[in-house]
Structures are given as structure tokens and as C-alpha cells.
Amino acid sequence: METITSNQAKTQFGELLLKVQRAPVEISRNGKAVAVVLSVDDYAALETLKMQHLKEKIHAAQTDIKKGKVHDGEALLQALINDDAL
């Protein structure tokens, strides 16, 4: 992924918009990555993947509940507080 500075992004914004149509571009400030700019199509694809992953996790959780594979919330919280293994 190409990296440009925040100043370059500001002064070359039109060019940045063209670049992100091909691939995401990382923006850095003071040598530290602060943002990634991507095309609308890439963003939509990312959101679709996130939604698909969430649906899979929900389905797996529902399956676990049906099988009785559940933990008592209070016991789980207490185990986390006490740093105990379940």
C-alpha cells in the first residue's frame, strides 16, 4: 500500500482521489500512520465482509445456545476478574 504524508494528501487531493480508485492509500503524519483512504467500492466490499462475518458469529452463537454450550454471565465475569481459567 502506498503511503503519503498528510501534507501531500492536502496539496495533491485530486491525485489522491485518482490513486484510491486503484488501491487504498495510507496517510501518515509525523511518520505515524493516521488514516487509510479507499474507494467507495472497496469500502462497500469491506462492509459486506464485516456483515458476513458478524452473521456467521451470530449463527455460531445461536448453534451453541441450542446445544447448551453457554456460560453463566456472572461466573464468567468473576473468572475474568480473578484471572481464572474457565
How do the strands and helices of this protein lay out in sequence?
Layout: E1 2-5, H1 6-11, H2 13-19, E2 25-29, E3 32-37, H3 40-66, H4 73-82
Parallel strand pairs: 1-2
Antiparallel strand pairs: 2-3
Tell me briefly what this model is.
By secondary structure, the protein is an alpha+beta fold. It has four helices and three strands; from the N terminus they run βααββαα.
Radius of gyration: 21 Å
Largest sheet: 3 strands, mixed
Helical residues, percent: 55-70%
Average of the residue pLDDT scores: 93
Poorly predicted runs = none
Would you mind describing this structure in some detail?
There is one protein chain. The chain is of the alpha+beta class and 86 residues long. 58% of the residues lie in helices and 17% in strands. A three-stranded mixed β-sheet has the order 1-2-3. The protein is elongated, with a radius of gyration of 21 Å.
